[in-house]
Prior knowledge:
The chain is an alpha/beta fold and 333 residues long. Helix content is 42%, strand content 17%. The strands form 2 sheets. It has a 6-stranded parallel beta sheet with strand order 2-1-3-4-5-11, with helices on both faces. The chain has a 6-stranded mixed beta sheet with strand order 7-6-8-9-10-12, sandwiched between helices.
Amino acid sequence: MNIYDVSEKAGVSIATVSRVLNGNPNVSEPTRQKVLNVMKEIGYTPNVFARGLGLNTMHTIGIMCADSSDPFLANAVYYLEQNLRKCGYDSFLCCTGYDLINKQKYLQLLLSKRVDAIILVGSSFLEAAKKDNSYITAAADTIPVMVINGYINHPNIYCTLCDDYQAVYDVVNRLIDQGRRDILYLYTSRSYSGLQKLSGYKNSISSNGLIIQEDLMISCPNDITQTKDILMEQQKKGLHFDAVVASEDQLAVAAVKFAKQQGLSVPDDIAIVGYNNSILSGCTDPELTSIDNHVETLCMTTISTLMRVLDGNDVPNKTTISNDIAERETTNF
């Protein structure tokens, strides 16, 4: 039995049950008593890790990220912790890596720490097989789960994400409008976010009457040197491209290094666009045009949503934020 069973049997919203659990005064005494009676009747015991009947809040949030050395994830963790402190909450951080077993282990560790909610940073926590996400949905049956840049449709899971599909679609359109025809797409993963970006690339190519070429979509390690070597190898094999769109700034930096080594003029011979508008975008020569996914806004929105959830308010399951293009010297937009 869980909070959703209580809600259904008592004939009240999940938010009302949450308010009773939190000891919120904005619940009438008859409604409060009805909810408590249903809990007793069905044998529901409030999660000992959460805010049981308003008597036990740790004011601590668990944060999970796969790789704290990743610029996007590192920035996200910084903004999350900063905003949680402003709201009077501490945090536990777990860097899980990408292995499913480790993700499951760290989530259980955070639950054992009696956290009030869990924030999953990045869509790498969303597995392709639905059953592999059951550890996340099970956690959401006891405490709120926030997901940044990914989407799971399940009660008590709240997702804040950028419109990755539209961002890549638009930038590929702009490159095509400028006469680019052989646009290389570099990506690192097939996570939820990664698939949205890849879909935006493919649909922009096809909607402009061009042929989607499999050899112009290359999966790369998230490593500058290795990606540059992959581009060198592909060029030796005869692959031609006059523009590069990358799913991460690291990959776009590798493309800039490749162009310089090959004596190509950027952006005249080859235009290059990165993603995340990270600190790396200002470290190349020429400086890198990059899609800005507004990591600070993502995190501020996530914490704002979480505070409303913890207060027992009804909030949407999904909030989408628009991206912008930070135009610099690797394109002539």
